[in-house]
Amino acid sequence: MSSEIAIKVERLSKCYQIYDQPRDRLKQFVLPRVQRMVGLQPKQYFREFWALRDVSFEVKKGETVGIIGRNGSGKSTLLQTICGTLNPTSGSIQTNGRIAALLELGSGFNPEFTGRENVYMNGTVLGLSKEEIDQRFDDIAAFADIGEFIEQPVKTYSSGMMVRLAFAVVAYVDADILVVDEALAVGDAFFVQKCMRFLRNFMKSGTVLFVSHDTSAVVNLCNSGILLSRGQVIDSGSPKRVIEHYLEDLYESSQDIDGVSISESKIEPEPGDQTTNVEEYRDMRESMINSSTLRNDIEVFRFDPEQASFGTGDAKIISVRLLDKEDMPLSWIVGGEDVILEIRCAIHKDMLRPIIGFQFKDRLGQNIFVDNTYLTYQYKPVAAEAGTELRARFEFRLPVLPSGDYSISPAIAEGTQEQHVQHHWIHDALVVRVHTSSVCMGLIGLPIKNISLEKK
Predict the structure, then answer these.
(1) Which residue range is the domain that position 305 belongs to?
(2) What is the tens place of the pLDDT at every residue in 108-164?
(3) 427 part of a folded domain
(4) 406 is a domain residue
(5) pLDDT tens, 326-378?
(6) Are residues 55 and 163 in the same domain?
(7) Are residues 155 and 283 in the same domain?
(8) How many domains does the chain have?
(9) Please, what sign has the CA dihedral across residues 416, 422, 426, 428?
């Protein structure tokens, strides 16, 4: 294996034997041997379940790879075989460097041992000597920040405390490869931010294999992505493209949803009017910024209906435009100004509860903001008949954006916020380009009503 490769997986497969009854396990152990002895064809008393089948990929040193897929796609099994906690049925895995792993919650911990004892046990398993662990123990305890619980049995820990201790150990073992399986799904916000700072620093020189259902995290953290489905790699490449494929696969698998058949009689009564008047204000520096080279000039490109899309086809998005207050199409916008996003859809099948929405994403595919019509019309859905057209309008003040390219992905679905059928979703249907900006850090700039600096 090349010295530039950190992980090489070739034709990896993992098969489990599924027994319908406990006695079938005994039958499988005894009877096939007897059947062979008497010249009969051995009978199989189990069903095969292939968690992985012919998985192959390479991860270069210093690369961060995100692995995504639906539940049961084989993600955790893949990581466990790479870490050596599961033996593959066939295929090979080669690694170059010390591996530290954060797998299932509490894996690798002895629940009867104290936190301190588990630190020493895990450190030893990961290749550290007692003297090396002694030198790092105070740093590990400080990172975990679980106080006196470090001297208590791990079985008394909460899930958050378990993750704290596990992450603290891998943070100080000088690993070359870090494998993370949804480890940050639990834990408080402050600790998650601490872990993210560690991960970003580790990524400067180390190799990371990262499993998460958080598509924004995959786009934000990873150099490339791998999509698993039913134990096989069905796509790999740029995180943005792989996530688009994942979302398409996810929605296509959930098209038969009860939510779309909700009758009018089941709709809850509309609550009282909750509308409140919001006092508008503008950035105190707006006139100064807009008269300078820092004005947030944004170019708007034409709607592209030929971009990659998916859905049932029972409705089709036919137009996406950004308009001004007079409904005139905009080819240029200034960040911080009011705009109208118009999405028009042709309806090909009767719909009781249509939902039209959009995602506004940066060039990496991170969602800057997302919205749809569901909440506004959940008590008075606008039914649409086949052959008609639906038009959704979203009026908002466009944020001040950092320089770069952004895109709008529109969609039309039917059902509820939680359960719906996706009829048409177009990736990156409308692109905008920010040429100049006063924002130097962060994802967006907020209008500041007042800034003061006082000397007393």
Answers:
(1) 276-434
(2) 788 899 999 999 998 888 888 999 999 999 999 998 889 999 999 999 998 888 888
(3) yes
(4) yes
(5) 999 999 998 888 999 999 999 999 999 999 999 998 887 888 999 999 999 99
(6) yes
(7) no
(8) 2
(9) positive
